[in-house]
Automatic annotation (TrEMBL), chain B:
The glycine cleavage system is composed of four proteins: P, T, L and H. One of its GO terms (cellular component) is glycine cleavage complex. It holds the Pfam family GCV_H. Its cofactor is (R)-lipoate. This is Glycine cleavage system H protein. Binds 1 lipoyl cofactor covalently. It comes from Larsenimonas rhizosphaerae. HAMAP family: GcvH. GO terms for biological process: glycine decarboxylation via glycine cleavage system; protein lipoylation. The modification N6-lipoyllysine is found at K65. Residues 24-106 form the Lipoyl-binding domain. NCBIfam families: gcvH (TIGR00527), PRK01202.1 (NF002270). Keywords: Lipoyl.
């Protein structure tokens, strides 16, 4: 057993009465005294402050950084404009997903945010995989997410320029006197911002944000139920080395320039597999959303069966959706069963529960497009 | 502080038991248990007529966070199930000692009641568990 890491906000979480869980080698708040459901609902109604400092923040310097990174991911990064951010996937040689990440163009460098559980793997991949003159700089910064429809009003108090940002914009700026890197993005399906700040100033910024009555702290529990309702994938659960981006229903994550006939076709690991699947749509399984007809939550690992009792697959993420008011899940199903409205049966403690295939997201996103 | 009514008996797995005085008991989960579970979204209970055995699982309570097994503090046959929990599982959080009773049981062995904890003893247990 190694000692779990703590983020710079750990003492603040303790003071706020957080309950902690180990997550990706960190002691992270799973919820505060309000509880997961209230934190979830508060995020959809007002806005919540999440500590996501466990995630990996990496800067790539060098004139050829975008070209070099394109050899590892299927996104179009060469055309990523300064001040913009894009979702990307590190792929494997067999067409699987090695990690999902955000890449922003800061002008003099690329800013990457990768999953906590994958940051060591990703760093190793970058160190061995990036060709040419690219400097990799792992940051020891904190990352806060202020998520919800009122986030923009709160942050505009610190810097009105946030109002001019749209979904997936990224800017370096100052909040009062605190230098921050801000993305108008998140992991909740709501409008919101992710704010990278130095470890030294993280607590101060968090306290200033929490001073607003609209802002409440929220933990990983609500983060998970919010992202599930938003139909967003969690690496290691909904995305793995054994699922392709096409099977994961993320074809939009493959840049046009990287597709067959594009300016820079392929050139990423597993490109032949992934681009053939994209062109022919001949994949056998696909990620779908499922809504339960009853009230029993259907969680990760629950097996799914057809009406005729053939095993179809298992749930990769599942739980109760507080905004939907019903148990919801995501699963990989054979393509014949992916049509919305298809009924499948989930086995929970020996009993079968009916679920209906649906498109994701389960809730209408509030992104500021 | 969690509520621990004086008139009830308790198990160390955080169930409460009301001795109905006629060889039957009513049981539920304690205020401490509901608070630790968080927002309850589903309760799975046995059916009337089913036997339950002290120390064995007899149902499941699911919160937004996770699923938790329910352990029978006593042995006997289920004579009633709180059907209202099917549509209002949140009452486990709101009224753990009244509206959200779980099941009523006809005891096989009334002596087992003496294995349960008094309110004072349960309060001490909670203190020890911190």
């Amino acid at each position: 057993m190694t000692t779990p890491h703590r983020t710079p906000l750990y003492p603040l979480h303790e003071a706020l009465g957080a309950r902690f869980v180990p997550f990706a080698g960190y002691d992270m708040p799973v919820h505060y005294p309000a509880g997961v459901k209230q934190e979830h609902e508060h995020t959809r109604r007002a806005c919540s402050l999440f500590d996501v400092s466990h995630m990996g923040q990496i800067l790539l310097y060098g004139d050829e950084a975008a070209q070099a990174l394109e050899t590892l991911v299927c996104a179009d990064l060469v055309d990523l404009a300064q001040g913009r951010q894009r979702y990307a996937l590190f792929t494997t040689s067999t067409g699987g997903v090695y990690d999902d990440l955000m890449v922003a163009n800061q002008g003099d460098c690329l800013y990457l945010v990768v999953n906590a559980s994958r940051k060591d793997n990703d760093m190793a991949l970058l160190r061995t995989g990036l060709s040419g003159d690219v400097r990799i700089d792992m940051q020891e910064r904190a990352l806060l997410a202020l998520q919800g429809p009122q986030a923009v009003d709160v942050l505009a108090d610190f810097n009105p320029a946030v109002r001019d940002m749209t979904f997936m914009d990224h800017q370096r700026m100052t909040f009062s006197d605190i230098p921050v890197w801000v993305s108008r993005a998140g992991y909740t399906g709501e409008d919101g911002f992710e704010i990278s700040v130095s470890s030294e100033q993280a607590v101060e910024l968090a306290q200033r944000l929490l001073a607003y009555e609209q802002v409440a702290p929220a933990g990983l529990g609500a983060r998970d139920s919010l992202r599930l309702e938003a139909g967003l994938c969690l690496y290691g659960h909904d995305l793995t080395e054994h699922t392709t981006p096409i099977e994961a229903a993320l074809p939009w994550a493959i840049g046009k320039a990287r597709r067959q006939g594009g300016e820079r076709e392929g050139g990423f690991p597993g490109g032949d597999v992934i681009l053939t699947q994209l062109a022919n749509r001949d994949h056998l399984q696909q990620r779908v959303g499922l809504i339960a007809e009853g009230r029993a939550p259907v969680r990760e690992g629950a097996e799914l069966y057809s009406e005729q009792d053939s095993r179809l697959g298992e749930v990769c993420s599942g739980g109760f959706g507080p905004t939907i008011g019903k148990p919801i899940a995501m699963a990989y199903l054979p393509v014949d069963f992916c049509q919305p409205g298809t009924r499948v049966w989930a086995e929970v403690r020996g009993k079968r529960h009916a679920m209906t295939v649906t498109t994701t997201p389960f809730v209408t996103p509030g992104y500021a497009r | 502080m969690s509520q621990i009514p004086e008139n009830l008996l308790y198990s160390d797995s955080h169930e409460w038991v009301l001795d109905n005085g006629d060889g039957t008991i009513t049981l539920g989960i304690t205020d401490h248990a509901q608070s630790a579970l968080g927002d309850v979204v589903f309760v799975e209970l046995p059916e009337v007529g089913q036997a339950i055995e002290a120390g064995e699982e007899f149902g499941v309570i699911e919160s937004v966070k996770a699923a938790s097994d329910l352990y029978a503090p006593l042995t006997g046959d289920v004579i009633a199930v709180n059907e209202s929990l099917e549509d209002a599982p949140e009452s486990v959080n709101e009224s753990p000692y009244e509206d959200a009773w779980l099941i009523k049981v006809k005891l096989s062995d009334q002596e087992e009641l003496s294995d349960l904890l008094s309110a004072t003893a349960y309060a001490q247990l909670l203190e020890q568990e911190g």
